[in-house]
Design goal:
With 67 residues, the protein is α+β, with helices and mostly antiparallel strands. It is built from one helix and four strands, in the order E-E-H-E-E. The chain is 19% helix and 58% strand. The chain has a four-stranded antiparallel β-sheet, with helices on one face. The longest helix is centred in the middle third of the chain and has 13 residues.
């Protein structure tokens, strides 16, 4: 996670995963959680980390928080 914002139970998250499968697994686990609803992936993009020489997946999602 690189960013988390929540207002009136509507939240947006940004983060970075190693692979598309890692991002998909994160979304799946959020969707299965009792704390989040309406988990929707809104954007992904591939980015190269020059320090680590790795291709990473940046993502953004929206959801509702249940509390």
């Amino acid at each position: 996670m690189t960013n988390f914002e929540e207002e009136a139970r509507e939240c947006s998250m940004e983060g970075i995963g190693r692979t598309n499968e890692d991002v998909a697994e994160f979304l799946r686990r959020l969707a299965l959680s009792e704390l989040f609803d309406r988990v929707t992936l809104t954007r992904t993009s591939s980015e190269r980390d020059t320090e680590l020489n790795l291709e990473l997946i940046k993502f953004e999602l929206t959801c509702q928080v249940i509390y």
